[in-house]
Amino acid sequence: RSAGVRGLCLGSFLLHAFKRVRKRVLRMSRIIVCLPLVLFAASSLTSEISEHENHEATPFEEDECYFAYQNASEAVQIKGKIYVKSQNFNSSLPPLCDSAERIASFNATHYLFSLAAVIPHFPKFVVKFNTSFVLSMTGNHCEYNAMTYRYETRQPPKLRKLMYMNDNRTCMIFVDERNSTAEAARCQLLQPEKYADEKVPDDCQKVYDDNCPGLNITVYHSYCKNL
């Protein structure tokens, strides 16, 4: 009888131990299953935050740290032709020898410019047209930093912002209007005729390289001045 009792007790003990081990295994399996879910959720949340921050990032042309380099009123006072040296986007026609020149001033915000370009495959055929330049302020700017004008004869006027102009006014960068860095920057790097054959200043080139990714289309060549 005592042996039978001991057998029952041993069986009960083993059954109880088995249940405890089973519970621990189930608990561990739940943890292992949930861990990837937690990691995935954390990863997803981090990705969403990062994407949101990138989407909301302030473009260079609206960053208050650089407002001193974005005075469009000074840019339109440059005399003579201003040539597009390079740009990072395709135009309706391949850009070649594109230039702009102020020919009249009506008031502090309204100017008349002559735009010129060479027709591809016809290197001596220059097309010119006049367009109004109307200055405006965008974002938190307290001085005029943007201008609206017709860039192509077949397109409506568009607003473009002065992204950067160096202190000596020997180079400048214009960019199409955009709301955040989530939108691609369509940029043109320009230099006045007097400096067009010189190397682009390092500061101007760095701003362009850092903020205007994409194509690298050379628009200006030394023969453009003779057309």
Automatic annotation (TrEMBL):
InterPro entries: Calycin, Tick_his-bd. One of its GO terms (biological process) is symbiont-mediated perturbation of host defenses. One of its GO terms (molecular function) is amine binding. This is Putative lipocalin-2 1. It comes from Amblyomma triste. The lineage of its organism: Eukaryota, Metazoa, Ecdysozoa, Arthropoda, Chelicerata.
